[in-house]
Sequence to fold (502 residues):
Amino acid sequence: MAYTKLFKVCQDAPLGYQSVNQAVDNNTALKDLYNEKHSIGVGGNNIYGVPLLNIGRHDDILIARTVAHFTVDTTAPTPTLSTTMSGPMFGSGVQYQRLGTGQWRLFVSTPQRFGATALCRSTASIDRKASCYVTYGGTSGPSIIVTTWEVDAGTFVETDLDFSLAIWAQRAA
Amino acid sequence: MPLFPYVQQGSSFARRDPLGPSTVNQAHENIRAIDVLAAVEHLSDGTHNAPEIPWVLGHLEDGSPPTGYLFNTGYGGGTLARPATGEYTVSVVSGVMPVGLDGSTLLSSIMANVSREQIANVPHTITAEVVSATSLKFRVRSLTSALGAGNTWADTNGHIDVGLHSLAVGYDGSLLLPYELKQRRSFLTEEATDWNALVQNQGIIRNAALAEHASDGTHNVDRIAKAVAWVDWDGASYSLAVSEGVSSISRISTGIVQLTLQVDFTSQTSAACFPEVQPSLTSELAVINGRCNNSGVGTTTFIVYIYAYDGTNWNRADRSFFIPMFGTV
Fold:
């Protein structure tokens, strides 16, 4: 619906029905503008019952749906993963499985097509690499397997390293 | 989750019914509902303000110092530097970034890609190091062995693409004019509670929306991708599985794929991408680099180069991949 700039009036000026109708149409035009790429509350819930997108959040395939930074804690007998994140792709919290040194399965809560870009954090002049393996099926369901490597004696070795993820997905239904 | 308190009104409502106060009252409330919705991930001037949208995004052309492209005002006039071979620092003015870049206490997700022309020959890697609350260091390395002949790497200079996510800033407050709900028998254009506030508020909302959106609601800011693609490799050919803004793909040769966009960027340097390869196995190490290889001539293309490590050597490889692409239209 088209937007038409309306006129201002002086006090007690007559105001016809067409002007009021246009004001109503202008509101519709502005609502439709935002509805194009933002959620107005029809995103539905994920498997944890958490709304996929709250009102006002961007709902656009061209914008990352979730961004996160993961920190590996190697002080415990078994390394653990902690995260700061924003977005609904992991539901109410990251559920993960340690697959081995430098390899984690992160369970994703969406049936839609998704992808991720990963980056290793570095604190030394050593070559490092992070990669993502996206899986939709199997007993684990949709997940991202992140693997982090570090060059050691000329060979890439899977190593526990902090990493960042930006996860993109199709627009919520 | 609160419901969006917007009540859809019929556009011919005011003709059939007596012109009572409820129509204009609801119109006022609807504008306020839109303002509240916009405030979730935009500032009052329309600037996008969300963790999922990089606060700083740009393309660095190698040099001493490097030259930056695409960086928005959020970059705040900070500095780019190349303190050593293969090292690039991106520093922002203190107080410009919504929060510090220290990933140990704050959310800060980073995207990065090597986009020098030499990615066509050998794989490149890039890592990021948080130096301070306002500075990041990126390290670029490339394979110095020939393909199929070893795994030796070294620091190397080159163009890079970077995207820095951070927490959103606090909302800076609505710009809407106040209004009062009308009562029966009151004049619709009564001073200070009248029609003019509705008209001006609609203009305020529209002006803010158009700061970083087109009139149809699509985004027109450099920090938001203009195209994205999921490209599948089935062992014999590539296919465009899911995409937006991409008109076609073409396999140039093993591990080399070109994507043609539906829009045309103003230049190759005002472009960035952050491709990610899908390894053939969960344990495979594969690398993908990408760059904008043509623009400003009616069509824009990006090209990616994919390499896989077999445990001893690096070789070109066809793999599925994902790529978001940014640029100035």
Notes: Chain A touches chain B through 86 residues (CB under 8 Å). Chain A has a mean pLDDT of 84. The two ends of chain A are 23 Å apart (CA to CA).
